[in-house]
Amino acid sequence: MKGKDNPDSLRVLIAGGGPAGCACAISLAHMGAMMGRELSIVLFEHKQYGIHYNQCMGVLSPPIETILSEHLGLRLPVELVQRTIEGYWLHSEHNSIHLTNHSGEHSEHSMATRRVLLDRYLLTQALKAGVEVYPNRVIDVEFCDGGVCVYTEGGSFEGDMLVGAFGLDRQLGDVLHRRTGYRAPDFLETVITKIHPGQHNVEAQKNNIHAFLPADPAIEFAALTPKGNHITALVAGQRVTGKTLREFLDSSLCSRVMNFPYQIDDLYKGSFPICPAKRFYGDNYITIGDSAGLLRPFKGKGINTGLLSGWYAAKSILERGVSREALSRVEIDFAEQIGDLWYGRAARAMAGVMARFSLLDPVLEAARRSPQLSQALFDSVSAQDTYRNIIHRIVGSPSTLTSLASESVKWLVNGRPQREQ
Ligand SMILES: Cc1cc2nc3c(=O)[nH]c(=O)nc-3n(C[C@H](O)[C@H](O)[C@H](O)COP(=O)(O)OP(=O)(O)OC[C@H]3O[C@@H](n4cnc5c(N)ncnc54)[C@H](O)[C@@H]3O)c2cc1C
Fold first, then answer.
1. Is 20 near ligand 1, meaning CB less than 6 Å away?
2. Which residues are CB-contacts of 244 (< 8 A; sequence separation ≥ 6)?
3. pLDDT digits (tens, 9 = 90+) for 290-326
4. Do 322 and 207 reside in the same domain of the chain?
5. Is the C-beta atom of 273 inside 6 A of ligand 1?
6. How many structural domains does the chain have?
């Protein structure tokens, strides 16, 4: 039965069961029960987690445990954590620095997980909360009579509201664009693989993630993350291919870390958004997570923002309704994320230009001498703080600026600094 037949009832159709879709489904179920609402929540997810892959590094950043417990009433199962991340190596073309957290403010560590197991856990929790889950792909949507009709490979479904949590699925993005004017966010391409260099070489990384900002214009950034028994390698850029990843792994930059023989597993293609989607909500629909473009540049915290946006969307739907006007409030709820995307874009553009011209080398050198700059780089790479705060901290610290200026001058006069590691 649709909600318009009974004003207190509501049927929400969710396309996609990643972190954003599951968080929205679970939050609707929990909050709806507390409010005494008659709710029907239907979620469509065609992937079988474990058989199909998820093109993600699976690094969970703080405050993931707080988000899970305070917003979703869930606990992160310890068996999902393959490794606790204690630090980061940041590599520019000719320099490297080890970064750890020296701020007393954020004491939680990031954690490396197997992403499909996290997705499977969240979907199981949605089922437990009473959500109807169908293993179907959504192929079309129509909006009429104050509601929505969703067409799937397993039949059609009517509801009051569509929640688009389909990541960057281009097919469904195009459908929504035709029906509503929604425009999917621009994105960067990624290629990811697993490397099995033997347990000894995985352990040699000592629970550190390696992040690379190479001068090669084909690559915006690259990363190596030690997992349980392998290392996950990633390259990201406007147009990256399997060849880009192989060339990066064979490069002298990467051999600073991967100085051992290795074989690569299958390659996985993916993408992540680099700006907010246009018209990400309207009458009877809202998009969340990657579909809404809510992802911090350089990949960080996409899982966290997906979970939070799902929770905010559920709250908004239940408290205010399903009209465009009622949903417009989410712009305020998402303000921190959306606002920070612009700071992140500025940081990304600056890092890109500096990497191309090897200007990051003196920045890393300056960070060795400046604890504030080192902490700012740690917060940026580990996604522990917003780009807005990080940029303000750097610009507002005369000692950091002096250190940056003096290392840059030294580098220009004396040439390349000595590389650590
Ligand atoms: C290479 C790479 C590495 C990353 N590493 C990290 C990291 O380490 N840490 C981190 O926090 N973030 C990381 N991210 C970002 C993170 O993966 C995303 O931000 C996060 O998964 C967004 O969650 P979501 O639910 O919005 O979308 P997704 O996780 O993409 O979920 C969308 C779901 O919708 C389903 N779907 C799509 N189309 C349909 C359809 N038509 N019908 C039904 N279902 C559909 C998909 O099968 C999928 O399960 C990474 C991203 C990439 C590309």
1. yes
2. 191, 218, 219, 235, 237
3. 999 976 655 568 999 999 999 999 999 999 999 999 9
4. no
5. no
6. 3
